[in-house]
Amino acid sequence: MCGNAARRRVPRHFPATLKTMDSNPQPSWIAKLSRSLERLRQSEDQLSLVLSLVIGALVGLVVVAFILLTGRLAARMYPAGGSGWRRILVPVLGSLSTGYLLWRYFPFARGSGIPQTKFALFINDGLIQFRTVVGKFFCCSASLASGIALGREGPSVQVGGGLASVIARNLGLSPKQVKALVPAGCAAALAAAFNTPIAAVLFSLEEIMGDLHAAVLGSVVLSSATSWMVLHLVLGDDPLFHVAGYRLVHPVEFGVYVVLGVVGGLGSVCFVKLLLGLRAWFMRLPKSTVWFQPVAGGLAVGVMGYFVPEVMGVGYNHVEKVLNGDIVLKVVVLLAVLKIVATAVCYASGNAGGIFGPALFIGAMMGAAVGGVAHALFPNYTAGPGAYALVGMGTAFAGIVRTPLTSVIMIFEITRDYSIIVPLMISNLIAFFISHRLQRQPIYEALASQDGVHLPTAQSRNEAERVQVRLAMRPAAEILSPDTPIIMAAHRMKESNFNAWPVGDKGGLRGMVRSWELEQAADDGASNQPVAVILSKGSENSQFASEELPHVHPDHSLSLALERMGTSGLNVLPVVSRADVRHLIGIITLDDILNAYGVSKRDSPMEQSE
Amino acid sequence: MATAFAERSFLGTFGLVFLSIAALFATDTFLVKTERAANLVEAARLFEQALVLMQRGENAEAIERIKDAILIERDNRYYQRTLAQAQLAAGKSADAESTLTELLQSDSTDGLTNLIMGRVLVKEGRFAEGISYFHRAIYGRWNESAPENQLRARFELIDLLAQRNSKEELLAELLSVQDLAPHDLKMRVRLGRLFLLAGSPARATDIFRGILHDAPANADAYAGLGEADFARGDYRAAQRDFQTALRLAPDGQAARQRLELCNDLLTLDPTVRGLGPAERFHRSLKLVELTMDETSQCIGQNPLPELRELLDKAGTALKAHVIAAHQSEISESNTDLAEQLWQARKKECKWPPATDSPLALVLARLAQ
Questions:
Q1: Same domain? B98 vs B171
Q2: Distance from B132 to chain A by nearest Cα, in Å?
Q3: Are A521 and A485 in contact (CB under 8 A)?
Q4: pLDDT tens across B301-339, in order?
Q5: Over the stretch A235-247, which tens digit does the pLDDT of each residue have?
Q6: Confidence of residue A600 (pLDDT cuts 50, 70, 90)
């Protein structure tokens, strides 16, 4: 159908092409190729299909190179059985060099890559610069090869999404088309990084898009499958982990899997809170130390690696060992704790690398610990620790990344073991529930919030599909300066119909000052003092932060704006950027909303009758 | 103008992307080859270390090294089989079984893996299952020197059956291997001895006679033939064979012991042909005396009345004065008395008599 439509459209564009060819004779195959490409360029559906395949192949090959490069470099930089001092020195030097490069040349290549990709997708029209892709690839390779306790999958997602963005933009596609191809690149990357094509599709939809019914499903599936085929072509058909066949020994085991879900959920929350807390602490340090901060992660992992080398790097070989029940209970407990700390410090200090891999590592160790205890207590009713390590991986993934469906399918695909899927679902959902209760904001949203970026949630995107604030808002014609005397501010507010007014300076929006606050200040004899006094009083009570400032974004629905007006008691709200909450784009008033719905006071029947 | 520029950009980007794909494919292929070569070296290094550790008896350490090697080179069945052997040597037979089960899931016809599995199960005391794996090994697939390896597996099974004294199964295996085994003298002697263990002295005799036909001065064959004759109850022939064997190989301790046993038997047996009445009577008395001594040593304070009666009879017989004319007749009654006493002893005494003593052998022969 689409193809026919495209074919019908082609003749309209033919004359220009033919004219060019007539004036510059070319061999017939070049002419044919040109015509084919021209047809392709004119047909959006066909182009999307072809690009999905091309992106899948390209991203698959890049991720394979990434995997091989990090593995080979790691084996050379801190070989098994190498000296202890080397295990300290290599991560320190690695984090120092990559820290400088990230600070100086590739500022957007820090961290995992998932929040950055979502930022690009939802806020920046799918724009990921080629420089970021290159920086992410090489900095992550160096960082992971030097033993930094982070993963390679998150960065792969950003690299994949970035390549899709670069290709789409260079082909001159519209922002809408660019945004549609970025998830395809992400899925291709994850399919190759984890060898999990189905989970990659789900992850792209569940986490990146936040919508399992997204329209990009077709291209995501195609690119994921292509990438997976490329991976198999180059590396062969091996699952990420080889696992002995496990089965449910006795129904009593379901109880142990429930316990594992609880432990996995609590462990995930500890990890996320520790990571976010440490990151907030690092962010409070002077800006001049940013290039040097990753060394803290390198040093931490180096010192741990001196005593326990298993903590270093991605650690998938140790995960495989524990999946086969080859590591004793004390060691798995130690490894779980050390990896949580090492990954949190490495990530929070600004090293390049993701948390997918560490999540699997931590989960496997937690699972093996629970399984080891259970098997020691009830040897006849429980499987060995390996089975629990397997389920533990999914549990931690569901608890930390908060993608329960992806985690179930991913563990199934990683291990190709179907028999454990029901316990996996039980544990995953419990861990997800606990994590959701104890840490409201998912990790990627929380990380973005720390950077002052408000990523849209699935709920907010649904709202956004309705009438949006951007359609009803008005420019903020006048903003009160913090230095404006209170009496003047009160006078201006009386002239307007608003009960609040935005206050800002060169640094952006400082807050909202309310009419009753101005009146109260005037009554207290502070008429000549600046408005900033009121704002600072307010910030003493509740520290000024994006969460406390009543605001809306341009893509929010009008109903949400109305709801927020009701909650805050204001009839005017600032409209701020998602990328920077201090950037005031405009204001929206109660009248604007009513006008947008066609029920403004002016037009109301009651007013007319009066 | 703008359209032409867009067209060029479109074509150029596609061209660049395809070039990148080709370059990346080449790079990845090169990296994979390098990686695989390095991995093979590393895995081989770890495996060599493991073999050294196994030779030193440090099997637990060896297991760890082999597992590390397998992590790198997952499809190496040789490493996995060696892991199972190390686990077996370390006493972790359940782990060895698990390792081998995985291997057999991917290839159930693998001869060597089945053989090791057979050994593991035998060590666990699961003989019936173990023997079935030995059979799978014998009829399984071997990557190199298949006939030799299959024969070796069969002989390992035969040795196991011989140790367990499973005569019928042993005989079945020997009959199937008889024509397959190499025809060197050493192997033929071994086969002959195994037939003896399997309770087939006639077949053993044929084999040893065949050997002596080809190599008349083979001491081992004479000793084997002596054993076969001995097993058939032909002590006189056995005596001759052992004597010949000792003449050919004077250091043969086993043949010497068997010869002494034959001598004792032949000097004790009152039914040997060619004896005079006096000698036959004398031997029958000796038989009664030895039987009575053997019985007296093992009975309790209050033996059964029948046994008491037999012992009394034996005492009387030993003291009785018999004239030459009645010696033949009394010899037979003495022999009967010795046999009755022996049967009564078997019922009364808690521990069985030594089956390879001259007395037991003579009485067993008399009972036939």
A1: yes
A2: 24
A3: no
A4: 777 778 788 888 888 877 877 777 777 788 888 888 888
A5: 887 777 777 777 7
A6: low
Is the residue at B9 inside a domain? Answer: no
User: Domain containing B331: what range?
Assistant: 274-367
Task: Decide: residue B27, CB within 10 A, 0-12 exposed, 13-18 middle, 19+ buried.
Answer: middle
What is the residue type of B119?
A: R
Same domain, B52 and B167: yes
For residue B5, being part of any structural domain is answered with no
Q: What is the 3-state secondary structure (H, E, C) of A16-59?
A: HHHHHHHHCCCCHHHHHHHHHHHHHHHCHHHHHHHHHHHHHHHH
Structurally, chain B folds into a number of domains equal to: 3
- CATH fold label, A253-450: Clc chloride channel (1.10.3080)
Nearest CA in chain A to B7: A38
- In this structure, the number of other CB atoms found within 10 A of the CB of residue B113 comes to 27
Query: Does residue B92 lie in a domain region?
Result: yes
Crossing angle of helices A44-77 and A130-145, in 10° steps, is 30
If you measure CA to CA, which chain A residue comes closest to B24? A61
Most B CBs within 10 Å, among A170, A177, A416, to test the B interface: A170
User: Fold for domain A458-603?
Assistant: CBS-domain (3.10.580)
CATH number, residue B244: 1.25.40.10
Asked whether residue B44 falls in the same domain as residue B87, the answer is yes
Among A177, A391, A127, A120, smallest CA distance to A263 is for A391
Assess if residue B362 is contained within a domain. yes
Q: What is the DSSP string of A198-237?
A: HHHHHHIIIIIIS-TT-TTHHHHHHHHHHHHHHHHHHH-S
Same domain, B233 and B314: no
For the structural domain made of A49-235, what CATH number should be given? 1.10.3080.10
B30: contact with A, CB 8 A cutoff: no
Which of B317, B308, B352 has the alpha carbon at shortest distance from B338?
A: B317
Q: How many Å apart are CA A282 and CA A293, to the nearest integer?
A: 7
User: Pick from B35, B67, B74: which is nearest to A326 by CB?
Assistant: B67
Above pLDDT 70, what percent of chain A?
90
Could you report the predicted ipTM of this complex, rounded to two decimals?
Answer: 0.72
